[in-house]
Write a structure and sequence with these properties.
The complex is a heterodimer of chains A (about 475) and B (about 500).
Chain A lengths: L10 H23 L4 H23 L6 E2 L4 E2 L2 H27 L7 H17 L3 H19 L6 H32 L4 H8 L5 H18 L8 H8 L2 H25 L7 H23 L3 H20 L6 H24 L17 H4 L1 H15 L5 H15 L3 H27 L12 H19 L1 H9 L9
Antiparallel strand pairs in A: 1-2
Helix pairs in contact in A: 1-2, 1-4, 2-3, 3-4, 3-10, 3-13, 3-18, 4-5, 4-10, 5-6, 5-10, 6-7, 6-8, 6-9, 8-10, 9-12, 10-12, 10-13, 11-12, 11-17, 12-13, 12-16, 12-17, 13-15, 13-16, 13-18, 13-19, 15-17, 15-18, 16-17, 16-18, 18-19
Chain B lengths: L1 H19 L3 H20 L7 E6 L4 E5 L4 H23 L4 H20 L3 H10 L1 H11 L4 H30 L6 H7 L5 H18 L7 H9 L5 H8 L3 H12 L1 H27 L4 H21 L3 H32 L10 H4 L1 H14 L7 H15 L1 H26 L12 H19 L2 H38 L1
Antiparallel strand pairs in B: 1-2
Helix pairs in contact in B: 1-2, 1-4, 2-3, 2-4, 3-4, 3-11, 3-15, 3-20, 3-21, 4-5, 4-6, 5-7, 6-7, 7-9, 7-10, 9-12, 9-13, 10-14, 11-15, 12-21, 13-14, 13-19, 13-21, 14-15, 14-18, 14-19, 15-17, 15-18, 15-20, 15-21, 17-19, 17-20, 18-19
The chains are: A mainly alpha (about 475), B mainly alpha (about 500).
Chain lengths: ~475, ~500
């Protein structure tokens, strides 16, 4: 088959990524000569907002070519939708970091450029139309996060987190690259479009399916799907909370964006056992994530395991790409981004400067001592638990409807049963805040930047919950995941 | 639009009460104002314009509210009950009364949504959202063992309703309905295979039985009432929030008639057991609120009998009884709160002989107890009678068994009155105060209104019940046709 020329560049689709890159490089240079990280943070935020505006402009402009570089870099609804999610997550993470880094004595200006580069990688992953672009995006996204997780140098836990994440992450990348090589061997091309065409005949299915399975494992690692999730709780516990805010939403969004596109296009051409394997992985993620979270006593660890569990709910939608699963997953990730980032943002105002002290007891009586903070966290937790009319509920309804329509009723029932478990551990935090007297004076930290972040997250959680149609319609208007199909 | 306003007005007042953080008289005024405004709106509900706005069009969900049918009756009665309850909450809750009032109003908005929703997902949204204020009322304002009671309530309610959600989603997926709107669903869901309908019905029934509640999924209710705030205001919400029967009536029975026909005998038996069990257990209680909780459990059993008899009179009666018990049960819980205010105890052995010191309180309580046990001419009688009458038409044996509960009701009613008000005592007791009088007058009026003139409300309920019965009859006919046709088809092959 013939491809369009390689140098067909749609600059408007590339603009968000280029903006992130330019901002990151510029701030990095600035950081060489200045020790003050505040202007860097401000510039980074402006860069994110500019990238958002570019993405929005592209989103609202109908038509245009679907992809650049010979179908290797997409600028379609899905790519842009995930770009929005990634940018919102990044903006919230920057805001949360702004005062926290100073308080925790972690303020070094290179922090923000690294975060921007990682976000850039996630954006590239969401837009990737071939396996090489995907691998590039994955590495751009991952390398800065390895550094960020070990940001608290001279702290054993943080160093361990960085090291663990790096070693396992490198392993995950290697698996992904191996899978890409196998797919290339079977299909003779890296481009999804070409792979779909080449594999449609049904020859070389075993080789290609093995490749697909390895790609699934590699991306499943970043998305923290069980059994590839085991790094997540330790890294989330060890890394500074603002970094966790970033990782738990942006890295996950990037990984799922890539997984959705490849899963909805290439995977259906492969042997059916791959989907069966995926359904088992998703089921395991739901069970392991939720039951482990139930056992935790620290709020940060509860949220860490619940982040694993939520990967399972998004994963449900992966199984139903033809039944609205892609839009459902994109919606769920948006909802997850705002509610989870919001919960972590509240957490930064509660813990000690070294991120310790997240015990449930510390939240006792918060409803009386800090009513607004407690109310915000309650809304985030209820939304994470899937209580209407909040964002998480609309996401769950969409995901479950897709997975039921695709014929996985048992997974929907499993998802619901594990959701009951999830509500128990989320509600345990709420019960501590409202049903107990405070045992000691809570930390009285305040931070305008963090408050703005919480406000943004709260607005998102409520808007997506009360008017889910607005965002879902935009996603639902999205076309197919491949330009030619 | 009025059906939208009865949801929005309590919400707005709740927000006002929270944000203004006013002093007590202001909270009292605002609470009563919110209650009265909602009641006034509810009066104009019948015949008002339906609301239908796109909500999640990608999934076929529209924000549809409509006041035709039984919903408007329940909204009206609930609004009547809420006025005095809000006053009690604003007056008798010592700490953060504004929060209590706001939670009550939030719950009322949610309840109105449950009763008026015409889209199954929107119904579920309200159903589930109302749980949160109820949980917080129990957890924040409850007694010693409130945390255990809250956890129990949470797990029962959520486990049930999440299964219901799977059923709801599968209902549309399997039937291929155009949307979740009741008219779209009603067109296709009765055509589902009976076995599929049975499973879907069971899924929905789990959630609804928990909130009906029926034995053996009832135990959260007793703990909830025991641990709720002693003023009784939160228990009123408890008696309004028993929406399981309405869920069956408005959704599960008409949407899945073949499933209902298969499962109803089991539920009917459970309901009959609940009716008798609740009545017997009530007499054995030492705690006043547990006593009332078991008594009302017995009522819910009779409502279940009326529903699952699947007969027009029974369905009408069940929903009428549901509305009536809102008044009588709530009133007695508030009386219990008044007694607690005098003696700081709910233990029945601490009482006795109150009639001497407080004759007016005793008289009103006797009146309310009469209503509670279903004396003719008062609120509970028409619904209870019709529930049993309907069930007798279709399944006489369980109905006869459930009727034992009516006899037992006489026993526990008299028992309750004796233990509280008769006998001798040396402790002086205040009689009804002005506030308490204001609180009780709407209840007395409600008991008389629902007891003396049930016809207008019953007519409204019957509009909807007739549709349900029609669906059931069609399913029964189709079932017969299928069984008759099967051998023929087999022979042809």
């Amino acid at each position: 088959m013939t491809f369009p020329p390689v140098l067909d560049v749609d600059w408007s689709a590339l603009a968000p990524a280029i903006t992130l890159l330019v901002t990151a490089v510029a701030t990095l240079f600035f950081a060489l000569f200045h020790k003050d990280s505040r202007p860097v943070a401000g510039t980074a935020l402006i860069g994110v907002v500019t990238a958002f505006v570019f993405a929005l402009a592209r989103f609202l402009e109908p038509g245009g070519q679907p992809a650049s570089f010979g179908l290797r870099y997409f600028g379609d609804t899905w790519a842009l939708g995930f770009t929005f999610v990634i940018l919102v997550g990044t903006a919230v993470a920057i805001l949360v970091s702004y005062d926290q880094l100073r308080r925790q004595d972690l303020e070094r200006p290179e922090y923000y450029p690294l975060m921007l580069l990682s976000a850039l990688g996630a954006v590239v992953m969401a837009a990737a139309g071939d396996l090489i672009t995907l691998v590039l995006g994955l590495e751009i996204m991952s390398l800065p996060v390895y550094v960020l997780s070990a940001w608290r140098t001279r702290d054993r836990q943080s160093e361990e987190a960085g090291m663990k994440y790096f070693l396992l992450g490198a392993f995950g990348s290697a698996i992904l690259i191996y899978g890409a090589a196998l797919l290339y061997g079977a299909g003779g091309t890296f481009v999804y479009e070409g792979l779909v065409a080449a594999l449609a005949g049904g020859e070389l299915t075993l080789l290609a399916t093995l490749g697909g399975a390895l790609v699934l494992a590699g991306l499943g690692f970043k998305a923290s799907l069980a059994p590839f999730h085991q790094w997540a709780p330790d890294v989330y516990t060890g890394a500074p909370t603002p970094v966790v805010t970033f990782m738990s939403v942006v890295v996950k969004a990037g990984a799922f964006a890539a997984l959705l596109r490849i899963g909805a296009t290439v995977f259906p051409q492969l042997a059916p056992w791959l989907m069966t394997a995926l359904s088992v992985i998703v089921a395991a993620t739901l069970i392991v994530g939720n039951l482990s979270a139930l056992m935790q006593r620290g709020v940060k660890r509860i949220l860490a395991y619940s982040a694993v569990a939520h990967a399972g709910y998004v994963g449900l939608a992966l199984l139903a790409p033809e039944h609205g699963g892609v839009a459902a997953a994109a919606f769920y990730l948006t909802a997850y981004t705002v509610m989870n980032a919001g919960a972590f943002a509240v957490l930064t105002l509660m813990t000690d400067a070294n991120d310790r002290g997240d015990a449930l007891e510390r939240f006792s009586g918060l409803g009386r001592t800090r009513p607004w903070l407690a109310a915000s966290l309650t809304l985030f937790l209820l939304s994470l638990g899937g209580i209407p009319p909040l964002a998480g509920f609309a996401g769950k309804v969409l995901v479950f409807q897709a997975v039921i329509d695709a014929g996985y009723l048992w997974l929907a029932v499993l998802g619901i049963l594990t959701s009951v478990v999830a509500l128990v551990y989320y509600f345990r935090i709420i019960a501590h805040m409202y049903f107990r007297e405070s045992e000691y004076e809570p930390p009285r930290l305040t931070s305008t930047a963090t408050n703005v972040a919480i406000g943004v997250a709260l607005a998102g959680t409520l808007l997506l919950g009360l008017f889910p149609g607005l965002w879902h319609d935009l996603l639902g208007a999205g076309q197919t995941l491949l330009a030619g199909l | 639009m009025i059906s939208l306003y009865v949801v929005l007005v309590p919400l707005a007042v709740a927000l006002l009460v929270t944000l203004l953080r006013a002093n007590r008289p202001f909270v009292q005024a605002l609470a009563v104002l919110g209650g009265v405004a909602t009641f006034a709106l509810a009066l104009f509900l019948p015949g008002s314009e339906p609301v239908d706005a796109a909500w999640l069009p990608g999934l076929g969900v529209s924000f549809a509210l409509d006041a035709t049918g039984a919903g408007a009756v329940l909204v009206l009665v609930a609004a009547l009950v809420m006025i005095p309850t809000l006053l009690v909450a604003a007056t008798r809750v010592e700490r953060n009364a504004a929060g209590f009032v706001a939670l009550l109003l939030l719950a009322q908005a949610g309840l109105n949504g449950i009763f008026l929703a015409k889209d199954l997902i929107v119904f579920y949204v309200f159903w589930e959202a109302t749980l949160i204020p109820a949980l917080l009322l129990l957890g924040v304002y409850g007694g010693e063992r409130r945390r255990q009671a809250t956890l129990k309530y949470l797990v029962y309610a959520v486990a049930g309703s999440f299964l219901m959600l799977v059923s709801i989603l599968a209902l549309k997926g399997l039937s291929g309905a155009a949307s979740f709107h009741v008219t779209d669903l009603m067109l296709v869901t009765p055509g589902l295979a009976p076995s599929a309908q049975t499973w879907l019905f069971v899924g929905m029934a789990v959630g609804m039985v928990v909130k009906l509640p029926l034995w053996p999924l009832h135990s959260w209710l007793v703990d909830l009432n025991e641990q709720n705030h002693p003023s009784g205001a939160a228990d009123v919400l408890g008696s309004l929030y028993k929406v399981g029967a309405f869920g069956f009536f408005a959704w599960a029975l008409p949407l899945l008639p073949a499933g209902a026909l298969n499962v109803a005998p089991v539920l009917l038996a459970l309901a009959a057991i609940t009716a008798v069990y609740g009545a017997l257990a009530a007499v054995a209680q030492e705690h006043l609120k547990r006593f009332l909780a078991y008594g009302s459990l017995s009522h819910m059993g009779i409502i279940g009998v009326g529903l699952f008899g699947l007969h027009l009179a029974g369905l009408n009666g069940a929903i009428y009884f549901l509305a009536a018990q809102m008044v009588s049960t709530s009133a007695l819980f508030l009386v219990a709160g008044m007694l607690w205010h005098r003696r700081r105890s709910f233990l029945l052995r601490d009482y006795g002989g109150l009639a001497k010191g407080a004759p007016a309180l005793a008289a009103v309580s006797l009146f309310l107890i009469f209503a509670y046990i279903g004396v003719p001419g008062l609120s509970n009688f028409p619904g209870e009678f019709m529930s049993l009458l309907g069930a007798f038409q279709s399944s006489p044996l369980p109905a006869a068994f459930a009727t034992l509960a009516v006899i037992a009701a006489g026993v526990y009613g008299v028992n309750l009155y004796q233990r509280l008000f008769q006998g001798s005592t040396t402790v002086p007791t205040r009689d009804l105060g002005a506030l308490e009088l204001y609180v009780l007058v709407p209840f007395i009026a409600g008991v008389l209104w629902l007891g003396v003139s049930p016809a207008p409300q019953l007519r409204q309920i019957e509009q909807q019940a007739e549709l349900t019965v029609l669906q059931l009859e069609r399913a029964a006919a189709a079932d017969g046709a299928v069984t008759a046709a099967l051998p023929a088809a087999g022979g042809a092959r």
